Amino acid sequence: MSDLRFTISPRNRIVPLALIFLGASTVAFGLYSAPDRTWPNLLLNGFYFTSLSLSALFFLATQRVTGARWSASLRRIPEAFMLALPVAALLMMALYFGREIIYPWSRPGAFANAPAYAGKTRYLQPAWVFARMAVALLAWSAFAWWLRKTSLDQDRKPELNLMLHQRLTNYSVIFVLVFAATFTLGAFDWLISLEPEWFSTMFAIYVFAGTFVQGIAAITLAAVVLKKRGILSGLVSDDQLHDLGKMLFAFSTFWAYIWTCQYLLIWYGNIPEEVTHYVKRTNGPWLFFFALNFLLNWVIPFALLLSAHAKRKLRILAIVSVMLLVGHWLDLYMLIMPSMWRSPRIGILEIPIAAGYAALLYFLFVRNLAKAPLAPLNDPILMADAQGGTVFEESMRGLLAGAKR
């Protein structure tokens, strides 16, 4: 494979930096003038930033665990996203300073008159909650660094490409197991604990479904834009775009399935401890956003991607990807804001802060993308495809046989 690289244009630097400055200035102004409105926005956009980076890491890991070959030439895209995790960790840990505004359990005497969920008092101690957050964020950042380092080692050491390929798989297997536990805890600590009296046994898988769709959408959008500009025209085929389109179609439907199941089970059960969550979100001005959430995250993407032809069209894939990225932000908005506000607020604070976070993620993505060849060098899958497809299988059988001996 050739050493094809992405170069950062002045526009790719100036515009994101300007938006980052605008977002940071808005945060500073908001913390001074309206902290009760600013801190929830920092949670919303920080979790969105973190979940997108984490989802890219999960996408990369699952591709390696399942032995997928179709996505080998796309590996640098999720790598560039996942390398934003250390920055995401800092942004999320900064929530500690606004904990009493965001989380009711962090306020003195929060559980004094709440016997129904008093069992959570020990679990929701601020020190323990933020310690769990730190461990999860550190673990995710460490796995992102290990996978990236191994990937770049494969570029530099062609004689070790099969061993490093297997190491990528081993790291990925361990990460998937760690991810299952830490993300479940994170979904509870960061989101569901905003309403400590509420619970749902499907909540973690619901948040995961939205997170994974978000990551697939970001990877698809990046692949489409790079292909459209001719940068990845020789590396991203129509078949790969079709595969990405199928993943968007499948996992947006999976999100809709979990969304529907959780809502219907709670509505049918009609248990006071459960229905309070949806009572807030299906009344008054929130009802519009509740319906819009379902439209953006499933109904419209499902209709647009229903045909096989549509899954190969760059324009449709780009539209659906942007829609799902906006839709997941709205999904998180509906999970977070109704627990703190009586009516929706999207205005002078929310838009610049969201734009600043998006610009920061974009800026880190293009910087990371420019640091390595766009096509992984010495990847045995790509080498095998170039040589007829049999070399990889034979080499891997020899490697595994040697490991057993």
Give a quick summary of the entry:
With 405 residues, the chain is mostly helical. It has helices spanning 10-33, 35-65, 76-82, 85-93, 99-102, 126-156, 161-190, 203-228, 238-269, 272-281, 286-304, 314-336, 350-369, 380-386, 391-404. It starts with 9 loop residues before the first helix and ends with a helix.
Keywords:
single chain; 405 residues; mainly alpha; 15 helices; 0% strand; disordered C terminus
Question: What is this structure's SSE topology?
Answer:
Elements: H1 10-33, H2 35-65, H3 76-82, H4 85-93, H5 99-102, H6 126-156, H7 161-190, H8 203-228, H9 238-269, H10 272-281, H11 286-304, H12 314-336, H13 350-369, H14 380-386, H15 391-404
Structure commentary:
The chain is an all-alpha fold and 405 residues long. Helix content is 71%, strand content 0%. The protein has helices spanning 10-33, 35-65, 76-82, 85-93, 99-102, 126-156, 161-190, 203-228, 238-269, 272-281, 286-304, 314-336, 350-369, 380-386, 391-404. Helix 2 (35-65) packs antiparallel against helix 3, helix 3 (76-82) packs across helix 13 and helix 9 (238-269) runs parallel beside helix 12 (314-336). The chain is globular. 40% of the residues are buried.
Tell me the structural class.
mainly alpha
Question: What percent of residues are in strands?
Answer: under 5%
Classify the helix fraction into a percent range.
Answer: over 70%
Which parts are unreliable, with pLDDT below 50 for 5 consecutive residues or more?
A: 390-405
In total, how many beta strands?
0
Order of helices and strands: HHHHHHHHHHHHHHH
Shape estimate? globular
Secondary structure tally, helices:
15
For the terminal residues, how far apart are their CA atoms?
32 Å
Mean pLDDT over all positions: 90
Radius of gyration: 22 Å
Task: State the major sheet.
Answer: none
